[in-house]
Amino acid sequence: MFDLTLTFDNGPEPEATPGVLDVLARRGIKTTFFVIGKKLAEPGRRALCERARAEGHRIGNHTWTHSGPLGARAEADVAANEIGRTQDALGALSDPHRLFRPQGGGGALGPHLLTADAAEFLRRGRYTCVLWNAIPGDWRDPEGWAARAVEQCKAQPWTLMVLHDLPNGAMRHLDGFLDKVAEAGGRLRQDFPPDCLPIVDGVAKETLGRFVRGKE
Ligand SMILES: [Zn+2]
């Protein structure tokens, strides 16, 4: 028995997101989509987020350009340009808790995730920072990720997993993965394990320092 919260990052993608939504709808599973602002601004893609939201999924912010973990970037105004601009683009699509997921750059957790300015931007803007505790690597192994994902679920009581609604074929295995989860007694839920949230509605926890460059 285990709990599993699913999240889908890096969309919306016309060739991947609708299929993911179809599988989730058929199974009655609610999740969160962390979208890239620049993609959201492309023609036709906003409708994918509107559909997701209408079907009960939460929509979060996953930076404007997704061009590297924020803690590794030195340019001024990176927080406003990456986080604030995306939040503005989300508008009414945004979850009320203003969910933000930093880019991991391969999935690692650490002080490369945020700059001190970005952490302060999230606090002042009353964001909730949503990390993860399972990265099965669907983007680099579109065929083999699902078996790894099941093992990751079995290894801990509550998994917050990062998957990607990208057009690389990996999501063809989503339905089969969810069959395996069900066979193993997994329970799907939409809320997040508290350990994965270093900032909740703008309030930072002690753990935040682990994810801010220069503060670790
Ligand atoms: Zn990402």
Estimate the mean pLDDT confidence: 97
Secondary-structure element sequence? EHEHHEHEHEHEHEEE
Number of strands: 9
How far apart the termini lie comes to: 34 Å
Shape: globular
Largest sheet: 5 strands, parallel
Query: Using only CA atoms, what is the Rg?
Result: 16 Å
Quaternary organisation: single chain
Low-confidence stretches: none
Helix content: 25-40%
Number of DSSP helices? 7
Structural class: alpha/beta
Name the hetero compounds present: zinc ion
Proportion of beta-strand residues? 15-25%
What would your notes on this structure say?
Strand 4, helix 5 and strand 5 (128-129) form a beta-alpha-beta unit. By secondary structure, this protein is α/β, with parallel strands linked by helices. It has helices spanning 17-27, 37-40, 46-54, 78-90, 116-124, 145-154, 174-183, and strands at 2-9, 32-35, 58-61, 99-100, 128-129, 158-164, 186-188, 199-200, 203-204. The chain starts with a strand and ends in a 12-residue tail after the last strand. The strands form 3 sheets. Strands 1, 2, 3, 6 and 7 form a 5-stranded parallel beta sheet that branches. A two-stranded parallel ribbon has the order 4-5. The mean pLDDT is 97. Bound molecules: zinc ion (ZN). Residues 9-10, 62, 66, 103 line the site of zinc ion.
For the structure shown, list the relevant keywords.
216 residues; alpha/beta; 7 helices; globular; binds zinc ion
Summarize the structure in short.
The chain is an alpha/beta fold. Helix content is 31%, strand content 16%.
SSE blueprint and pairings:
Layout: E1 2-9, H1 17-27, E2 32-35, H2 37-40, H3 46-54, E3 58-61, H4 78-90, E4 99-100, H5 116-124, E5 128-129, H6 145-154, E6 158-164, H7 174-183, E7 186-188, E8 199-200, E9 203-204
Parallel strand pairs: 1-2, 1-6, 1-7, 2-3, 4-5
Antiparallel strand pairs: 8-9
Helix pairs in contact: 4-5, 6-7
Bound molecules: zinc ion.
